[in-house]
Amino acid sequence: MPSDxxxxxxxxxxxxxxxxxxxxxxxxxMDLTWRVPGKKLDVAxxxxxxxxxxxxxxxxxxxxEKEDNDCVSLFFSVPGEAxxxxxxxxxxxxxxxxxxxxxxxxxxxxxxATWEDASQIAEDLADNLGGEPLEI
Length: 136
Hints:
By secondary structure, the protein is of the alpha+beta class. The protein has 2 helices and 8 strands; from the N terminus they run E-E-E-H-E-E-E-E-H-E. The protein has a 6-stranded antiparallel β-sheet with strand order 4-5-6-7-3-8, with helices on one face. A two-stranded antiparallel sheet has the order 1-2. Helix 1 (43-55) packs across helix 2 (115-128).
């Protein structure tokens, strides 16, 4: 939301001029990633880890989908305060000989709107899979 800020600006034609400067705060969320042990996607193992993660939260459930040969996504349904549910999407990618990467992407599903919950669920899932954070 823009806010008014006034500042004094010196110019060659006037000693003091008041200018209104509008600033906008942009909320940028960076994707979070973890290296996960293994070289191949194991859907059963991911389903088990997803269920174990969901079970640690009241009312949270998970669906696991093989998106492609190199991607499995876990969709966590997280209950909201008003009785509605948000969807947190976390994906695991196979990078071939470079191994597996778990990724929480800010622009996927409702991840941006529920970033704190999404981040915690992703961290717990990564821990359940033995993941280590990646700095990108």
